[in-house]
Amino acid sequence: MIRCLVIDDEPLARQLMESHIREVKSLQLVGTCETAMEAFEILHREPIDLLFLDIQMPGITGLNFLKSLKNPPRVIFTTAFTEHAVEAFELDAVDYLLKPVTFERFIKAVQKAGILKEATTTTPITTEDQAIFLKVDKRLVRINHHDIFYVEASGDYIKVVTEQNTYISYHSLNKIAELLPGQQFIRIHKSFIINLRRIQFVEGNLVRILDKELPIGVTYKDALYKKLGQE
Q1: Which of 55, 107, 111, 169 could form a disulfide with 62 if both were Cys (CB 3.0 to 4.6 A apart)?
Q2: Which CATH number belongs to the domain containing residue 205 in this structure?
Q3: Which of 39, 35, 47 is nearest to 8 (CA)?
Q4: Do 24 and 99 belong to one domain?
Q5: In the chain, how many domains are there?
Q6: φ, ψ for residue 60, nearest 5 deg
Q7: Is residue 130 part of a domain?
Q8: Residue-by-residue DSSP string for 26-49
Q9: Of residues 206 and 89, more confidently modeled
C-alpha cells in the first residue's frame, strides 16, 4: 500500500486529488493539508511514500517546502502555473501536473513514480469507477460519476441530480465542470451540464434526461452534436 499525502490550499483541488487517490486500490490517503506547516507535522509522525504538492501556497511555497525536507518522499507537483516546471524537475520531482488534474493524467504520473505497475495491469480503472466529493450541508458526500444525470446552476449553488437524490452544494458550474471527465459530461447551456450516457433523446433545442427536458444553448449546440457523432 502506497501512503499518500495531499498538500494544497485550495479545497476543490484537495477534493479532486482525494477522489483520484481513493479510486486506486494500491494508494492509501493518509491525510490532506492546507499549509506546509500542517504537512511538516504529519511527515514527522507518519511514514509517507508519495506527496501531491501544490506550488503556490500561503507562507512557504511547495518548492521551498520540498527543499527543506532532509529525506523527502517521492513528489508529484500540482499547480495552475507552468513557469515552475524546470525548477520542479531540478528537485527530482516525479511529475508536474497542471490543474485541473484529470484522472487519466493522475494515473500516468503515479505510474511514472513506479508504484502502480501491478495495479494497472491487473485491475483496469474505468471512468465508471470514479466519483466526485461534494460538500452538502456539513458533509463531504461521494457521488459516483455514472450516477449523475445532470448538474444545474441555481444562483450561487448547483444541483447535482441523480435518479434517487438531488444534492445542493455551494459551487460554480465552471468548477464542477473541471472535476467531471470531459469524455462523459458536456455543458449544453450556461446553467446545465449533462451526462452523455443518460440522454434519452435530443429533439430540436432540448435534451431529454430523467423525464426532464433541458434546454440546449445556441453556443453549445454544435459541440453537443459533434460529441454525439452528428457533425
Answers
A1: 55
A2: 2.40.50.1020
A3: 35
A4: yes
A5: 2
A6: -85, 135
A7: no
A8: TEEEEEEESSHHHHHHHHHHS--S
A9: 206
**Residue 215 above 80 pLDDT?**
yes
Based on the fold, state whether residues 100 and 206 are members of the same structural domain.
no
Q: Which three cell numbers stand for residue 28?
A: 492509501
Q: Is the previous residue joined to 124 through a cis bond, with omega within 30 degrees of 0?
A: no
Residue 76 lies in a domain: yes
How do residues 70-115 score in pLDDT, each as one tens digit?
A: 889 999 999 888 777 778 778 888 888 888 888 888 988 888 887 6
Closest CA to 63 of 30, 90, 98, 101: 90
Q: CA 65: distance to chain centroid?
A: 23
Q: Is the pTM of this model over 0.90?
A: no
94 and 188 fall within a common domain: no
The CATH number assigned to the domain holding 93 equals 3.40.50.2300
pLDDT digits (tens, 9 = 90+) for 146-179: 899 999 998 889 999 998 899 999 888 988 888 8
81 lies in the same domain as 185:
no
Is pLDDT larger for residue 217 or for residue 113?
Answer: 217
Q: How far apart are CA 37 and CA 24, in angstroms?
A: 27
Are residue 106 and residue 156 in the same domain, yes or no? no
